Amino acid sequence: MALSVDGVRRKVDEEKEEPTWKIYFDEAVNFVGSGVGAVLISPDGRHYPVAAKVDFSCTNNVAEYEACILGLQAAMDFKVKELEVFGDSMLTIFQTLGQWKTKDAKLVPYHEYLEELAKNFEKISFTYTPRAKNQFADALETLASMKRSGRSSDTSN
């Protein structure tokens, strides 16, 4: 029995995995305030940056969770199904992976919300990346922390 080329092509197309998106997130807490940023990168290499100023006093750890949450929400807006998350916050990454316990009571709601957001993806991974490799998000969160107005800022194209 001969197989048609179209039949083979269709089967190959059905077996292709969903393209994986990437997100890099970071925070900045300084004398001006707190800012969070994330860069969503499409499978074809397009960059979609998002940044926001945090309008309340918070620790670096809370701001890191805020940045990761901002990134996941942006990915959900793009209807991303497979996502690789990168951040330079060992605490946020390792707590999300379940390798570290979330002991700080202020972080528990953030951790739980992040876990809920993660359920919206068919496949998601979290990877710790050293600060030097997180330059996209680092630049965004610095700008967001310096912004004087208190409203959220979306810097996407």
UniProtKB/TrEMBL annotation:
Enumerate the Gene3D superfamilies for this protein: Ribonuclease H-like superfamily/Ribonuclease H (3.30.420.10)
What is an example of a Pfam family matching this protein? RVT_3
- Pinpoint the RNase H type-1 domain residues: 17-149
| Alphabetized CDD domains for the sequence | RNase_HI_like
Gene Ontology MF terms: nucleic acid binding; RNA-DNA hybrid ribonuclease activity
Q: Which InterPro entries match?
A: RNaseH-like_sf, RNaseH_domain, RNaseH_sf
- What name does UniProt use for this protein? RNase H type-1 domain-containing protein
